[in-house]
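User: I'm preparing a small set of examples for a lab meeting where we compare how different chains pack in three dimensions. I only have the primary sequence for this one, and I'd like the structure in token form so I can line it up with the others. Please keep the answer compact; I'll paste it straight into my notes.
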Amino acid sequence: MKMNCNKCKNEVITLKFSEEQKLDLYILMQNDLKLFAEKKLIDEFNLDKNEARIIIQHVNNRNGRCAECDFEKLNGEYIECPNCGAFNYNLNEPMFNLEFCSHLEWTLDFKNIENEKIKYYAKSFWCDGIHHLPEDTQSLLYHNIENNKQIITKAWIGYGGNEIYEMKIKFGKKAIENYKNNKSLIECIPGKNEVPNWIKLFMEDKKIEIQLK
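Assistant: Understood. Below is the structure token output for the 213-residue chain.
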């Protein structure tokens, strides 16, 4: 099937991707590896170079944000931007994404850690970023979330927010259900006094564990 892009006037082949293919494409686009993304399409869908190039031009690297303009409220896959008319693949991205990691970063309160022995030292800690692309990118697939109930990534934590910690994010029942249904994980971050000791900090090992609802 092909769609006409009213912005660039090209015909765009609309491909249907598996969850694994979407994830591979997402990782490549997040790392700005468009040539590798084109090669993937050529190899897996038997496309020519021009067909693959046109498709990748229409794969927006952030769900909801148009690839051609500043519009940020695209809703649904394979959609035309109401602002500029550009066709966007707008593929669903993993719910463990930049938006979730930013919210989690802002929510971390190190006065709420479990270990009483280090609470005094860590109360002035803050987080200056959580990587939304774990080293094991396959851990972002739903069946791996369902089986392992966790994602391991890295975060920047400390008095200046600049020490690298291994961050293990554990999924509770609500988080697993949300991930399955492509719903935001932000609502699975515990609120104040909602889940006691949902942050575990291991300063000597430079590790932190987070328990989602």
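A couple of notes for your slides: Residues 2-88 form one domain. The chain is about 30% helix and 20% strand.

User: Perfect, thanks.
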